[in-house]
Backbone:
C-alpha cells in the first residue's frame, strides 16, 4: 500500500557528498522501519543502512560506516541517506525499502515495500 520514491542520485566526484531522499506516500510511514540498499553492476543487492520507526536506532554496513548517515523526518514522510567521502565503489543503484514488521534490518527479504531506485555514480 505504501509507495516509495527515491531521488537525489547523480554523478559525484570521489570524496564528494550526496544526499538521497525517499518519500513515502502513506501517513503510516512513521510506523515503518526503513532501509537503504544498493546494487552495483554485476553484484547482488546489498544492505547499506537501516533506521527504526522512531529514528533513534540506526544500522550501517561496515563498508559505509562513518561515511553515510541515515535519518528520517516522519513529519515529511521522508527518509534520507547522507553520503560523504564517496568512493568509486559506492557507485550503484540505491533503493529505499520499508518494513512494517521484521527482525532484521540487513536482509532484503525482511522488507515489504521497495522504491524503484536512484543511480549514484562516483567518478575518480
Residues:
Amino acid at each position: 500500500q505504501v509507495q516509495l520514491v527515491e531521488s537525489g542520485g547523480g554523478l559525484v566526484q570521489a570524496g564528494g557528498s550526496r544526499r538521497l531522499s525517499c518519500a513515502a506516500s502513506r501517513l503510516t510511514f512513521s510506523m515503518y522501519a526503513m532501509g537503504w540498499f544498493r546494487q552495483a553492476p554485476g553484484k547482488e543487492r546489498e544492505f547499506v543502512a537501516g533506521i527504526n520507526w522512531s529514528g533513534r536506532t540506526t544500522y550501517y554496513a561496515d563498508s559505509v560506516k562513518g561515511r553515510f548517515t541515515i535519518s528520517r523526518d516522519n513529519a515529511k514522510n521522508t527518509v534520507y541517506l547522507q553520503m560523504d567521502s564517496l568512493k568509486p565503489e559506492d557507485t550503484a543503484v540505491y533503493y529505499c525499502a520499508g518494513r512494517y514488521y521484521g527482525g532484521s534490518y540487513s536482509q532484503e527479504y525482511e522488507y515489504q515495500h521497495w522504491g524503484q531506485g536512484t543511480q549514484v555514480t562516483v567518478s575518480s
User: Anything to note?
Assistant: The mean pLDDT is 94. The CA atoms of residues 67 and 111 lie 24 Å apart. The chain is about 0% helix and 50% strand. The longest strand covers residues 92-99.
